[in-house]
Design a protein that fits this description.
By secondary structure, this protein is of the alpha/beta class. It folds into 4 domains: 5-133, N-utilizing Substance Protein B Homolog, Chain A; 143-178, no CATH class; 183-240, Alpha-Beta Plaits (2-Layer Sandwich); 243-448, Vaccinia Virus protein VP39 (Rossmann fold, 3-Layer(aba) Sandwich), CATH 3.40.50.150. It is 48% helix and 15% strand. It is built from 19 helices and 12 strands. It has helices at residues 5-18, 23-29, 31-35, 39-66, 76-91, 97-112, 114-130, 143-151, 155-165, 167-177, 194-201, 231-234, 243-252, 269-277, 291-304, 349-352, 355-373, 395-404, 433-436; strands spanning 183-187, 206-210, 217-221, 238-240, 259-262, 283-288, 309-313, 328-334, 376-386, 408-410, 428-431, 441-448. The strands form 2 sheets. Strands 5, 6, 7, 8, 9, 10, 11 and 12 form an 8-stranded mixed sheet that branches. The protein has a 4-stranded antiparallel sheet with strand order 2-3-1-4, sandwiched between helices. Helix 14 (269-277) links the parallel strand 5 and strand 6 (283-288). Helix 4 (39-66) packs antiparallel against helix 8 and helix 5 (76-91) packs parallel to helix 7 (114-130). It binds S-adenosylmethionine. S-adenosylmethionine (SAM) is lined by residues 245, 264-270, 288-290, 293, 314-317, 334, 336.
Length: 452
């Protein structure tokens, strides 16, 4: 079994790159090798994988200047080995350049042969010596290109953000996306209060803070052990969830005794929160097109002490009210989306998403919102949410919906002083990593007209 953290990082990145895998899946496929590493080596392996994915475009800009072979013609394994090693040289100060290069050459000999190892050695030594001479595009003349290289964003996306948000906001957003986010969780108030949980966490993590906008959130850094090994986790005292995701459920504002549909429940991050706000009284139907996710959700709900969830595998696009016994007081549709609002946590997505994905998912979101709307009772509430800041997946979905569905309107009467600063003038919830230090989310709270 491979024991070097750099070699394992290389394997994780190569299998992520070659197959249509998410980074999480690729990490899971290599979990046996990773679990045998010491704590320090695990941290290094993680830092290399995430670091390369965060800074890939900037690294490639430097590599291009020192490689006599165009990067597109270099095989995946040597290319990622170059990226991993250059990341260590440019962004980490704990490993001397010569040591990082020697290790890369050793790995290259094993994985790609002597000739490639020689090429890697030459490119890296040259890059280590001369990287300070590299220049960036002029931000005034080529703003999108500058953002793309300086902050490592694919050019199509830097162009889109520069157009949508302007140069300054895009730069701040990109800078924040490349930082390591705090870990945020939501207290399971069915079992413990937030203060007591924070106290327990202070034994195993640093920089414990109560979130400002989410009522039950706690954030922290530097866990001393894996989170799944926290005693509080094993006891079901919390669920990991970003502050923005918690606010979405606060916007739904479910009450005890109601009937709620979580139409895209996934692994149940928001379902658990709904149950808490309902004080474990009423009915929640947790639906998703992937039954495997619902199996996980069920076992997690048991651990959290929730008794009011019924799971239902459905394709929302092929569902009507006949598939349910009743209309719902509230429906949450946390729709499948590009995930471009959570690049800080999932930097792999920026290299796998494309412009077409935005259009394709926006079309699906419109259909799903319409289908979910048919399940809301007159006078009931429908919340649409996505973890993306793209207009096509945000306002455009809602405007298309409201143009067609005259039986719905934006619920302007809902008041929450606590997070009114996060609401736009049109009463949409919008969060950004740079301005709010949260994931980028969009949510709209809609109300179905009562029968007159
Ligand atoms: C953004 S995720 C939901 C995350 C979840 N609500 C949470 O907070 O953990 C979107 C979910 O929609 C589900 N989905 C995609 N297409 C669907 C469809 N046609 N019908 C029902 N669910 C669907 C996906 O399987 C995925 O779990």
């Amino acid at each position: 079994m491979i024991k070097d953290p750099r070699h394992i990082a290389l394997n994780v990145l190569c299998s992520w790159h070659k197959a249509s895998l998410t980074l999480d899946k690729s990490l899971e496929n290599h979990s046996e090798e990773i679990s045998c590493l010491s704590k320090n080596d695990k941290n290094l392996c993680n830092a290399l994988i995430f670091g390369v994915l965060r800074h890939r475009e900037s690294i490639d800009h430097t590599l291009c200047a020192f490689s006599n072979i165009p990067l597109i013609k270099i095989d995946t394994a040597p290319l990622y080995l170059l990226r991993i090693t250059l990341f260590q040289i440019l962004y980490m100060d704990r490993i001397p350049a010569f040591a990082a290069i020697n290790t890369a050459v050793d790995i290259a000999k094993k994985t790609s042969g002597k000739k490639t190892a020689g090429f890697i050695n030459a490119v890296l030594r040259n890059a280590a010596k001369n990287n300070s001479k590299i220049t960036l595009p002029d931000p005034k003349a080529e703003p999108a290109k500058f953002i793309s290289i300086q902050y490592s964003l694919p050019l199509w996306l830097s162009g889109k953000w520069n157009h949508a948000f302007g140069f300054e906001k895009s730069s701040l957003l990109c800078r924040q996306i490349n930082t390591i986010p705090p870990i945020t969780l939501r207290t399971n108030t069915l079992k413990i209060d937030r203060q007591s949980l924070a106290q327990k966490l202070s034994l195993v993590a640093k920089n414990i803070e109560l979130t400002e906008y989410a009522d039950q959130g706690v954030s922290f850094t530097n866990p001393s052990i894996l989170i799944r090994e926290f005693e509080a986790f094993k006891l079901g005292l919390f669920q990991i969830q970003d502050e923005a995701a918690q606010i979405v459920t606060q916007l739904l504002a479910p009450r005890p005794g109601e009937k709620i549909l979580d139409a895209c429940a996934g692994l149940g991050g928001k379902t658990g929160h709904i149950a808490q706000l309902m004080e474990n009284k009423g009915i929640i139907i947790a639906a998703d097109v992937e039954p495997k996710k619902l199996e996980f959700l069920e076992s997690d709900a048991k651990k959290l002490g929730i008794e009011i969830i019924r799971t239902k595998p459905i394709n929302l696009l092929k569902t009507s009210i006949k598939d349910f016994d009743f209309y719902f007081d509230r429906v949450l549709i946390d729709a499948p989306c590009t995930g471009l609002g959570v690049l800080r946590r999932n930097p792999d997505a920026k290299w796998k998403r494309s412009k077409n994905d935005i259009a394709r998912l926006a079309a699906k979101q419109k259909k799903m919102l319409n289908a979910a709307a048919n399940l809301v009772k007159p006078g009931g509430i429908l919340v649409y949410a996505v973890c993306s800041c793209e207009r096509e997946e945000n306002e455009e979905v809602i405007h298309t919906f409201l143009n067609k569905r005259k039986d719905f309107s934006i619920d302007t009467h809902f008041k929450s002083n606590k997070y009114s600063r996060l609401m736009t003038r049109d009463k949409f919830l919008k969060t950004y990593p740079d301005t709010n230090n949260m994931d980028g989310f969009f949510a709209a709270r809609l109300k179905r007209k009562s029968r007159s």
